[in-house]
Amino acid sequence: MLPPPLASLSCSNPQVVNVSSLDYPLLSVNQLLNNATEPLDIFWEPYYAEIIGQAIVRYPQSEEFLKELGDRLPLALVEAIRCFKFPIEAYYQTIVDEFKEWINREVVSDSVLESVLDAICWKLATIDSSVVLEITEELPSSNFSVLIARFRNGCAVSGVKYLSHFSKEHSALLFRDNLRDQAIEQAKRYHKKKILIELKQLLLCRDVTDREQRGTLALAGFLALVPLSEET
After folding, report:
1. Domain assignments of the chain as residue spans, ordered by start
2. Where do the H-state alpha helices sit in 36-130?
3. Those residues with Cβ within 8 angstroms of residue 159's Cβ, 6 or more apart along the chain or in another chain
4. Structure pTM?
């Protein structure tokens, strides 16, 4: 089964974000894809990654094209993943798999340009999707955007790691960070129970460093949780 028609891509459908406002640009991209004997150079420009990502969700493409997109513009695959909350269709899973293949091929082997990786990680930090934790497993955990992306989607350990990078003298509480604050709101709204369980486990763990403990307490503070011992 192919992805639903554009008319169903609305806020009433929790599986897919609303892209209906881009109907005409998406249709134009689809016509270029169908009419060109081979992909035009425009398809590989980072500037067009967002609309191309949305277009390949709206208008399914061949696995061959998705593979080439992964080779030349993986950012478009990330933008496609943004368009669905869950990979409920086989085609959606194909997009996820192609991005994971790119990670194994370029990131794990340390072949990717740092600027490309940074742009992708930054985008992932703004996405709410069940596949984010899966696709970020092999991305560098030292990257702040990766930690934010994982925390936003329910990984308390990543939130602790992010906050633990700040020393006592430079507490995260002292800095304004819009991306962090957005992630906190998403985590509180959709993953609070899971994060609370993980925070309890971290506080009971004897093998954490002082820095990690500070990060755990800071995260509990940011989430405005009641004392963990009183939480049911």
Report:
1. 1-112, 141-232
2. 49-58, 63-72, 74-82, 90-102, 114-124
3. 147, 151, 183, 187, 195, 215, 219
4. 0.80
